[in-house]
């Protein structure tokens, strides 16, 4: 079974994911917490992320939470994303964590703030 390295840049967490396992499931099995978990079926948008590097495929995503324009910019639902190589991504769902420390407060922000966060991380 081929596995790829997945990096959540927001938190620095790294885990392995096979091509037939979605990114969210692999993250949970690895006991990582960088991507928020919701319905696990693509309806709620909690696991929304932006892939900044790497190849992947997605299954059908709810357009109410990921528009076609966002998808073209690399936004995905982790529960519907399957790696085809190593991936680097940023969690951007409404409950995205800013760090991996235990007890770290969650935060939420609107779409404008998400764009600013993406730009900040993209500049690294």
Give structural notes.
The chain is an alpha+beta fold and 124 residues long. The chain has helices at 23-29, 68-72, 111-122; strands spanning 3-8, 13-18, 48-53, 56-58, 75-77, 81-83, 87-91. It has a single domain, classed as Ubiquitin-like (UB roll) (Roll), CATH 3.10.20. It is built from 3 helices and 7 strands; from the N terminus they run ββαββαβββα.
Mean pLDDT: 82
Could you please say which CATH topology applies here?
Answer: Ubiquitin-like (UB roll)
Low-confidence parts, pLDDT < 50 over ≥5 residues?
A: 98-124
Cα gyration radius (Å) = 13 Å
| Proportion of residues in extended strands | 25-35%
Following the backbone from N to C, one meets helices and strands in this order, namely EEHEEHEEEH
CATH class: Alpha Beta
Q: How do the strands line up in the largest sheet?
A: 2-1-7-3-5
Instruction: Label the overall shape.
Output: globular
Count of beta strands: 7
Helix percent reads 10-25%
Which structural class matches the secondary elements? alpha+beta
Number of separate domains: 1
What would you give as the CATH superfamily? Answer: Beta-grasp domain
Largest sheet: 5 strands, mixed
Distance between the termini: 32 Å
Helical stretch count? 3
